[in-house]
Amino acid sequence: MAGKLYKRKDGYWYYKYSFINEFGFSKWRMISCKTKDDEVAVRVKNQYDKTFGELKNPFSNPKFTYLEMKTEYLKTRLLKVKRGQLSDLTYKSDCNSLNRFGEWLLNKYGSEGYVLGDINHKLVQKFIDDRLDEVSTTTIDNNLKHLSSFMGWCLKKDFVKVNPVMSAKLDKPKRKKRKLIPSKDEWSLLWKHLETKVQRFLDGEEEYDFFSMMIFVQMNLGLRIGEVLGMKWNRGSDDNDTGHSKNYIYLSDDNNKLVIYFKRRLRTIPTSSINYLLDKIPTDYRLRKWVNTSTDKKKVKMKYVFGNPHTNEQRYSNQISRDFKKLMRELNLNSNYTTHSLRHGWAVNQIRNNSNIYTISKFMGHSMVQVTEIYADHLVSDDFDELVLNNKPKE
Asked: What is the model's pTM?
């Protein structure tokens, strides 16, 4: 049965039962149409019927489909992005994860219009097992996180009885701990390679290569790849406060400081070691003609230090990962290294250079110093030579 319209003194209201169990309906859904106009109220009612579904049998579950509710859910998420309540990257990750699950349903069962109420714990488990053949366990965890958020929203809206991701324990694959960290010689080799490219760029012997410059900045500051990609030239209008999950990273006006709010932790670090490079990185680009500008190629100020010059937006990390693998092969280094290996390598290199571990922890934005102490496990026997030579007691 569809919803009904009731006219009150304050305007039209939409009424509809919400289904709970096999014994019938337990409560009304009451939503204001926010209008006193008859025609407008009918249009609003039709829209609500599409959103909340039409029930033909009062003693059966509503047949909401995954495709329909996914579309409605992403609309609400996009609205949060516009309001500044959700980051654009989180929304894109929502879209990617939910679309992957929809594609899986289409390939497995021939339809993305799978009945939402039929998605259960066993179906999600099959999705996990099939995804293991394609992606890493980290990606699967990310997919499940967004799928659980979506199903939780459906549960809150009474579209489903339970959240299948949370209703029972799933056999999730264990994450493979990446302990691969560049050795002292490998770190030195990569550093010298990038330092040479940077110097050739500064001397005008090579064109600007954002990838080499970006990796060199990461090796200097021990940043996460997301922090490097999100680095802005200037502070944005909403880059403030700390009581939210929206990340922001921006340089000071003189490029000497970098303010980082990432993973709900705020820190400010000096950039004096790369200031000479930041001053030479191009800040203006001519955008391509398909970008919405007044002319075919308009020169604009770039928002991000290592942003995409064709869109003036932040680059995606997946392409960076592929380029990094290619660089590792070119230098005959372990191709299993990732850009995050550089963050670990920076910490180990600082420990080798006898930097204070508490200072390292604060600089990297770790929640506890115990996290930083883990990197000490990656020291090898060659790092202990100095200790052995200092055995003789002082007189």
From this structure: 0.62
